[in-house]
Structures are given as C-alpha cells and as structure tokens.
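Table 4 source record.
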Amino acid sequence: MRMYDIIEKKRDGHELIIDEIKFFIDGYCSGNIPDYQASALLMAIFIRGLNKRETADLTNIMADSGDKVDLSSISGVKVDKHSTGGVGDKTTLVVAPVAAACGVPVAKMSGKGLGHTGGTIDKLESIPGFRTSLGIDEFLANVREIGLSIASQTGNLAPADKKLYALRDVTATVNNISLIASSIMSKKIASGADSIVLDVKTGSGAFMKTFEDSVALAKTMIDIGESLGRRTSALITDMDLPLGNAVGNSMEVIEAIDTLKGKGPSDLRKLSVELAARMLQGAGKGSYDRCVEMAEKSIIDGSALKKLTELIERQNGNTNVIDDYSIFGESKHVYEYKANCDGYIASIRTDSLGIASMILGAGRENKDSIIDYSAGIMLEKKTYDKVSKGDVVARFYTNNKKSIDNAAQILDSSITISNDNLQMRPLILAYIDSSGVNKYIP
C-alpha cells in the first residue's frame, strides 16, 4: 500500500477503505508518512469529502490511536456531554452535578480554553486547591463513590487527532464537517461513555456560524456515535449572545454555583436543565418530561449543589467557596463600560466579547499564556435590553490596567445599539437524534 495511491484515490473522488485510512493514520503518527503527503490527503478530503462510513472509520481509528478509558467498573449507563465551545458556557459545572444527583454517573474529561472560548478545566482550577490532573484509578474511584469526576484529558487520549489537527490548522483544512466531527467524537469515544449528549453552538460566538452548518455537524456526530454503539443526541443552541452574564473563570464558577442555588441567570438554568434532562433520557431514566422534572428537583432540593460540593472536596478544592465567594480573590482594577446613546442593544458580537475577556487576562492567546482567574467581564445588559446613555453595559475585571483600553475598543466595535426593539431569538433552536431534527417552538 502506498500513500501516493491513497491521495490519488481520494483526489479523484473515490471512497477509501478502512485499511487505507488506518494505513494513513498509523503511518502519520509513527512518522513514516511526511507532512506534505498528509497535507495532500487532508486537502483531498476537504474538497471531496468523506461519507458516513469513512467518517466513522476515521473516528474509530483515531480513538484507538492512544489510551482509552474503561468505565466498565462503574455501574449504570455512563453519559458524557460535550459543547462545541462558546462564550460564558459554564453548563458542565451545573449539568454534571445535576445528572449525578439524579443517579447518572458522569466521568468527564475536559480541556483547557484557547482563544475566545473558555475551558471547563480552567474554570475548575480557579477554585483554590482544586486538582484536575488525576490518575485513572482515582478518576474512576471518584465516579464510583460520588457519581462524578471531572478531570483534564490525558495527553495520550486520541493522539492521532491532536497531531492531525495541528496539521489541519496550518493547511486551511479545518472547516470540513467530517474532519471536525471525527476530531470531536474520537475523544468522546476514547473517553468511554455509553451515551453522549452534544451541545452544538451556532451564531457569532460559535465555530459554526449558521443554523444549517450546526445541524450538519450535529447530524454527522450523531451518525458517528450511533454507528460505534453510543446513543448520541444533540441540541442546537444560540451563541449570538453569551450564556449567562459572566465571562471569566472564577466569575463563571460563581454563576454556576448561584444557578445550583436557584439564583442564577434564567438562560443558564434553562439550558442546563435541558441538557441534563437529555442526559437522563439517554441513560434510560424515563420520558423527557419526567427527566426535566428530575433535573429541576435536584436544583430545588439542593442535591445537585451537594454533588458539586462533593466533587470539589474529592478533588482537594476549598469547599468554602460554595458560600464565601471572596475566597476566589478579586481583581485590582474594575472598569465600567457604558452605553454611548439611548436605545436597545441590537447585537453584541459574542466572539469579540470573548476576545476582550481574553485580553483582560481570562483566556489564552497561545498555549503558554498564564490565566488570571479573577479577570473577565460581567454583563449588566445583554442583547435586546433597553439602555440609556451612560448606563453600565459591562464591568471589566483585571489585574492588568493596560489591557482595559484595548478591551473597551473591542466592545466599541462589537456592540450595536438600535432604536428598534428586536424580537428575541430562542436559546434552544433544535433537538436532534437518530430519528431526525426537531425544531423548538419558542
């Protein structure tokens, strides 16, 4: 078998067999296939595409390229949840404790943030003492004993995807549905869950900007999961405005805790309950309506908050943060960003808001950037809200005073104020499973 022949075959629009895909992945990971040949095949795939079977084979081969988590020692149906990334998206901190409180074990490996989207691991590491680097035995023991563990991904989880993504990133071959879907799902398959619930974002703050592209990505990932024996479903959710009001690590943890106390932003609670209900449904806990009731009850009776407290304690975090937010520490500088005219906020470019938060210190411009856990943005007004000139739209928090002007300039060019009161777009746009697409009616 020759790499030249595989490139030529896909270039001409033909289907690759599993042995050819495996030859490519194994050869590239071992260093036997050079970058220039791997790049040529990626471009051929980008242009010609992969069918369902090819995409599933690529995913499974990448999942098999490194460590795989064996969750068989944990009883029950193990359910994972994955978001394609957004601004202010702290749902894992709410959803995972809710699911665990309802009797569904959650063994979740998450990543750090890069660029304008935040990472669950960074948020958890803002809790003093919290450990996200766990050995596999401790990770599994936590799930067996309290029904929940969230840890950073092992460096050898789907290493083929990591190497392939780095090449895609510099060869203009990222934005292909099959390649995106196989990248995400290879890590989910390697993580060992029986059922997977996907939160596919759409809009200005999302990777997929249109509803149609988000649906296409969701359907492809569902096809992969189902073909590999995982019950898989997805929500299409709006990221034309940030989720909740807080954008920044410790600020988002506080907002998640408030939500578990029944006091958080309505949009964060709504989406968290919906995701948790779909996780419970995927674990066979009953009808959709019954699962919504269970999720809501876990917040009302405090059992979900108790699960978060247990998670923090098990992973050596300071549980006093649940009731004393001052433990997180405060930024030295607070800046009030104000409206420059009267009207209604017609739009806020959510990706720009994420970039502004990153500049203040809450995110990474590159892998070596140091996170300021107290930095970020708290929105006092959001899209569709009425404002008067001089109203505080957002508060910036940072320990780097020089970053404030830059962040303010980004918001200046990202916020549109109109005389018209626009109709609010629904938060949850559709639910998708193997039976098809079901649009939500607001």
